[in-house]
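Entry:
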Amino acid sequence: MTGGGARIGPAPRRRDPERRQRILAAAAGLVAERGYHEVAMSDIGAAAGIVGSGIYRHFDGKSAVLVALFDRVIDDLTRDSGEIMARGLDPSRTLTELIDAHVRIVLEDRTLMRVYHTEIASLPADDSHRLRRKQRLYIEEWVHVLELLRPEADDAALRSLVHAAIGAVHSTLFYASGLPGERLAALMAAAARATLFVPIPE
């Protein structure tokens, strides 16, 4: 009791951020392996070591888990690209930084990126539209920089080149190269630049 006679109730339960991350990691692995529609919430909970209704303290359902995974991908990409664009580097260096950041995210979290690449059609419509808008804004940053380096190319060509370059990097998600990480990263960055027809800066 307080001095005014009010009863102090139990403190609200806090959601454990580490448990939430375990759920997301487990979901990414299962969806990458089996496909979104073949994975149940109970499978995700079991893989994360969470039983019963514990998983629902963090997510309302399976689609909410998928949305959280996709938000993480696009937020990582846009955070890095925003920081790069804010540095005010010359266009060639800016493009190099954008490519390197994208390659790093793809190679550091291959499982999550595979899910992002293959399961975007499984998102609820509203979330799909929202995330695709974020994706378009991300692509726009690449297009803007590439336009400065390739002023002879029209807008459609620039967008096609950017999508092709990113697709080249994403190709590593679907096979095991056996190459050391640093070598694979360098090769993928070089492939992206070659696709865009821009030289490596001195």
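The longest helix spans residues 125-149.
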